[in-house]
Predict the 3D structure of the following.
Amino acid sequence: MSQITRTWLAFAAVGTALIHLALVVSSPLPVGIVLTLVGLTELVWGVAAMAGTRLLAPRIALAGAVVPIILWSIVLLVAVESSDSAVAEPLRFLPLAIAALLELFAAGVLAVHIRRENSGERAAPVAPSAGKYLLGLFVGAVVVAGLTTPALAATEAGQYAQPHGQHGVVDDGGHNGH
Amino acid sequence: MTKSPNRLLGVVFGAVYLLVGVLGFFFTNGVGLFATEGGLLLGIFEVNPFHNVAHLLIGAALLFAGLANVKAARTTNTIIGAAYLLLGVLGLFILDSALNILALNGADNVLHFASAAVLLAVGLGADKSARTATV
């Protein structure tokens, strides 16, 4: 896998991690715990992919990219079937849709990488020139940041500075007369 | 210098941010130093004079480190990348509030996150084999 592709994967992982972590504050405790664990794992994996020379556990990472999408799909289906918006409300659509997009990208890249490894293609990636590397990184960073930033802004954490309209299912008892 | 991604990034980003800092002052006539609403650079990125000064300082740091050597460039890129990541997150919280002393808007946040991503990726991930301070 080229250094540019590996860094794009890292960007996608960190972007998804930030979205998952930003959703913790608006989620019921059990969901918040899951989101925190998932988000921290994605963040660590993403930074390791960025700073290291190889991907950590690509097969597990592939599962890790796909499972949140499946879980979210199940939650949405349950919400639709039960007509109970409280089920899905804390998990806002836009942030998780964008997270799903980033996860799909990561899953696709990881799947291709694993298939190439399985088929025995062991050719060492050619290191790109510094200019090409920087251009590739800049394009990837702008795309991921362009997706992640509005997703973060759409979470309750991102709307913290604005007047509160309503709370979701969460009532942690910590708010005092805001 | 062109062989080191960190030095090349430092010089390019540094020069760009210096230019952005200077250009910003053409869009902030009459805007207070810490005003929460400023002028729109290129019609997209909101800035106030304090924001322009920050761009000048960051640009200068990146440029000088990039011109110096790999180790300086790596360190500076990583530190400023981390600072931009923090600013990106903070920026989400302080939009439309009295704390927005940099007059940030959504486009600024995107740019800061993107800059953070590139600076951190290159600072942490590139030039690993360079052990000498002068390249």
